[in-house]
Write a structure and sequence with these properties.
Alpha-Beta Plaits, disordered C terminus, about 140 residues
Length: about 140
Amino acid sequence: MGIETRTEDDGEKLHTIKEVKISAIYYGSVFDHLHAGTGRKFFDALETIIGPEILSKKSAIIHNVYSKTYDKKDLVKLEEVVLNEAQLKKLYDKFPRFTYSIIEKGEVVEKYADCEFRLHRHQDMPKGQQRIRGSSAQ
C-alpha cells in the first residue's frame, strides 16, 4: 500500500490530490460494491463464518471508495482465502448486495454478483471484459 500525490489545475487554482494505492492480491478474495460504511461489519461476519484464522491473513477494508454505480462503496480484500458456496450464501443472507471475485495468479477467475451463484470462468470471458450476472438489488 502506498500514497500517491498529484497536482491538478482546474483553471482557477491548483489542487493537491492524494490517492491510496492498495496492492493487488495474487490469490484470494475480493468483496466489492458493499454499502458504504459496512466494510467492518462485513469483515466481522467473515470472521464468524470462516473462523478466527481469518485474522492471521493479509486483508484490507476500504471505506467510502468512489463508485459510478453507488456513489460510495466499501470493499474488502482477503489474501489466501476462498469461500465455498455455503459460506458465500451465509454472507449474502446478511449482506444482499456485493460482488465476490476469486483471484488466482492475480487474475479474476470467478465472479458472483448479488445473490447469483452462476460461475464465470476467466478463460471464458472476452479479453478485458468481465461478465457478471445478477440482480441490481440495493
